[in-house]
Design a protein that fits this description.
Blueprint lengths: L13 H20 L5 E10 L5 E12 L3 E3 L1 H11 L2 H22 L5 E5 L2 H4 L4 H12 L6 E6 L3 H6 L1 H10 L2 E7 L6 H6 L4 E4 L1 H4 L6 H17 L2 E4 L5 H9 L4 E2 L10 H9 L5
Parallel strand pairs: 2-4, 4-5, 5-6, 6-7, 7-8, 8-9
Antiparallel strand pairs: 1-2, 1-9, 2-3
The protein binds ligand C2E and calcium ion (3 copies).
Organism: Uliginosibacterium silvisoli
Protein name: EAL domain-containing protein
């Protein structure tokens, strides 16, 4: 219930108190997390839709909090964005993932594409493009193997930073729109931004190939991708029937539990060295 007037917190419940406390713990913890090694990066394999062969990986941050345990990114990325801590975290994830992926590129004869999630809040920093450029130089990671994932729900503000996306492209990196179909971006916006790939959101994949609405949505997205010359990745592919359906639609890449969960560094390394296939 909404309270009126001065006494706004009259209905403050123990539940809200617990949530507020958790939020504070998260924010305070994040300040320390960058120094105490409690953040790690997991790597989810991205595969060729046709045969399931490995083409790359998405870097996904993980946080082991001393009191709260393993905190999923959905619960701390928002807090990090609001508190400004996302700049430090994003920079750390980018540096860690590029360093690791460079080791794998040198060690294994496979052309891997590394995808890294970037919050639009990060892009607002003055030195954002310089920071990416510096990380690429420092780690030696080839820019053409890096893909930056931006969430569609924030495309509205990306429209204002169109120039930034062109600067990123000039570095040689590619750009993907994440969670495609969940936001409100117009198709015109897609046309005017230097986008290389769209990722169809898990929510549209889940009920394929049974749900007729999702069939229609998946077809429409595939048609947009193909007519604009964009690559397409499906996320949350858990069943063979989903893979088959999306493959027939012309979707090139997939990630999901059917192929692999996000893996710790050592697990991903095992996959590369072939241990897991034998
Ligand atoms: P996302 O970018 O859409 O990442 C995909 C999420 O789907 C991941 O959740 C992944 O573990 C999960 N997933 C993958 N395959 C399947 C599947 O087959 N079924 C189901 N049910 N789920 C699957 P995760 O790792 O918890 O990340 C959640 C979100 O947090 C990400 O969504 C992304 O928006 C954000 N995030 C993660 N790491 C970073 C980061 O380093 N920086 C930023 N800015 N955001 C990040
Ligand atoms: Ca993503
Ligand atoms: Ca996504
Ligand atoms: Ca998502």
């Amino acid at each position: 219930a909404k309270s009126r007037g001065r006494n706004r917190y009259a209905f403050y419940s123990p539940d809200m108190a617990a949530r507020t406390r958790e939020r504070m713990l998260i924010e305070q913890g994040l300040v320390r997390a960058l120094e105490d090694n409690s953040l790690t990066v997991y790597y989810q394999p991205v595969v060729d839709m046709a045969d399931g062969s490995l083409v790359g990986m998405e870097a996904l941050v993980r946080w082991q909090h001393p009191e709260l345990g393993l905190v999923p990114p959905d619960r701390f990325i928002g807090v990090a964005e609001e508190s400004g801590l996302i700049d430090g975290i994003g920079a750390w994830v980018m540096r860690t993932a590029c360093t690791q992926a460079m080791i794998w590129l040198a060690k294994y004869p496979i052309e891997l594409r590394l995808a890294v999630n970037v919050s639009v809040r990060e892009m607002a920093a003055d030195n954002f493009v310089d920071r990416i450029s510096h990380t690429l130089q420092e780690t030696g990671f080839p820019p053409q193997n890096l893909e930056i994932e931006l969430t569609e729900s924030t495309l509205q503000s990306i429209e204002h930073s169109q120039g930034l996306l062109y600067q990123l492209k000039a570095l040689g990196v590619s750009i993907a729109i994440d969670d495609f179909g969940t936001g409100f971006s117009s198709l015109g916006l897609l046309k005017h931004l230097p986008i290389d790939r769209i990722k169809i959101d898990r929510s549209f994949v889940r009920d394929l190939p049974a749900d007729s609405n999702d069939i229609a949505i998946a077809r429409a997205i595939a048609a947009i991708a193909s007519s604009l010359g964009l690559q397409m990745t499906a996320e949350g592919v858990e069943e063979k029937a989903q893979q088959q359906f999306l493959h027939e639609l012309g979707c090139q890449n997939a990630q999901g539990y059917l192929f692999s969960r996000p893996l710790a560094r050592e697990e991903f390394e095992q996959l590369l060295s072939g241990d897991k296939q034998n």
